Amino acid sequence: MKKTVIGIASSSVKYNGQESSILPISYCEAITKAGGIPVILAVAKQEMAEHWISICDGIILSGGEDIDPFSYHEEPHPKLEKTKLERDQFEISLVQEARKKKVPVLAICRGMHVLNVALGGTLLQDIESIVPNCIQHTQKASSETASHSVKINKNSLLFSILGLHAVRVNSFHHQAVNNLAPGIKVTARAFDGIIEAIEAMNMEENWLLGVQWHPEEMGDNFQMDRLFAEFIKACNQGK
Fold it and tell me: Which of 113, 173, 214, 217 is catalytic?
């Protein structure tokens, strides 16, 4: 059997005066460790999404910039940070095509926001400005360090993967899921109520899982390794 091909959405930056793709190597390492073949997807026109979905067995939506609130019909909050509408539109198209073709999607940090917006949900544009008594969600510690706890819903795929009612995670976000998209449910929250994981209500029909933290950065953590292993397993079943 051919190895599982996983497309990983990237961002873009100016490098030596040219627009260039950028993606932390940790995503590729996590997929390789789980037995897949990582392929970096450059930001592209929306129509390219259909072609990538036809090639890839699964998609990872990676972290990065804020999502332009135009994508969910809101005006920009004063604390909105850098956005890249072309990336938003491409990744939203990836989600929509993946859902049509039943290609599994693992959405990480910003990726979880994209997943929710692509299916009709909205975001909190800045947690500290909107949520009273929130905890720190943009940690100062290194990326492999867990900084806060999340409570996991027992009736979820995430619980079956991690086998834990609560887990400590790293955290690098100032935005969060607000109104859930149709067909999506919350599977984990921080202790201040911020949504930390979501998944499809019917995972057998559409394998869609989003986590707010960065499991690919958490080093030799066997629970986070299981998250990627389960994703690869779902991708193999869809071949």
Answer: 214
| 19 in catalytic set | no
Whole-number pLDDT of residue 220: 80
pLDDT of residue 153: 97
H helices then E strands: how many in the chain?
7, 13
Q: What's the structural domain count of the chain?
A: 1
Domain assignment of residue 151, given as a range: 4-237
Alpha carbons 210 and 110: distance in angstroms, whole number? 9
Return the biggest CA–CA distance within the chain. Answer: 52
pTM for the whole structure:
0.97
Question: Catalytic: 216?
Answer: yes
Cβ pair 178, 121 in contact under 8 A: yes
Which pLDDT score is estimated for 239?
65
The parts of the chain modelled with pLDDT lower than 70 are 1, 239
The domain that holds 132 is classified in CATH as 3.40.50.880
Report yes or no: 224 and 238 within 8 Å, Cβ to Cβ: no
Q: Which residue of the set 28, 56, 109, 235 is catalytic? A: 109
Residue with tokens 């100016």: 14
Angle at 88 between CA 86 and CA 90, to 5 degrees: 70
Active site (annotated) includes residue 134: no
Separation between Cα atoms, residue 183 and residue 229, nearest integer Å: 24
97, 196, 199, 216: the active-site residue: 216
